[in-house]
Specification:
With 204 residues, this protein is mainly alpha-helical. 80% of the residues lie in helices and 3% in strands.
Length: 204
């Protein structure tokens, strides 16, 4: 038998052994719908963030005065811009982390995927709670001691420190989560195996 005939026979036998999936088309359609929905959500989030930043910049441009040859801005304008940036960062960073964390959690909790999905949801709740609490703790409703009625170096430094603070907190928590998640996944897997063994063992 020639090589072409052998190759044709191998391909035909492989094709005969292949079993079509009844729900293949449905799964492909759902995957496309999920991708389309994610793209729509990203466009909406970017539009919201753009509107917030644009509104803050418009307010800032409308309230900047030129006094004695220097550009000055009321202190609350920078505070409002900082608040808008923090909200926009929370809206953008949360889905970004979840997008790349899904595959990691799925690999860690491959023995019990439902636990992995629940873990992602719980981490999302914890993320937004931490972000909201930090914003509420650090927002200023009146100028601090070293601040003035207009923006000065002390206020700009405080704003930079607050922004760096939330990035540091989220980074540390995210790193801790990445390091401890495999241990948690292993513990959940062992517990499930022990439960299955206990359920399958004969009773006295």
């Amino acid at each position: 038998m020639s090589i072409d005939a052998r190759l044709r026979q191998a391909l035909e036998s492989g094709a005969d052994a292949f079993v079509d999936s009844d729900d293949l088309f449905e799964r492909v359609r759902l995957s496309l719908d999920d991708d389309r929905r994610l793209r729509t959500q990203w466009v909406r989030r970017l539009a919201i963030v753009g509107c917030l930043v644009g509104a803050m910049l418009a307010i800032a441009a409308g309230t900047i005065d030129q006094r004695q040859g220097a550009l000055t801005m009321d202190w609350w304008i920078l505070e409002a811009i900082w608040f808008a940036v923090m909200v926009g960062l929370a809206v953008w960073l949360g889905p970004f982390i979840r997008r790349f964390g899904k595959s990691y959690a799925a690999d860690v909790f491959r023995a019990n995927p439902r636990t992995g999905k629940s873990f992602i949801v719980l981490m999302d709740i914890a993320y937004y709670l931490i972000f909201s609490a930090y914003i509420l703790f650090t927002v200023q409703f009146e100028p601090a001691t070293e601040w003035e009625d207009t923006v000065n170096a002390a206020q700009m430094q405080a704003t930079a420190i607050r922004l760096g603070g939330i990035l540091l907190i989220v980074g540390l928590l995210h790193g801790l989560n990445v390091l401890t998640l495999p241990v948690m996944g292993r513990i959940f897997t062992l517990n499930r195996q022990l439960d299955d063994e206990a359920a399958g063992s004969p009773r006295d």
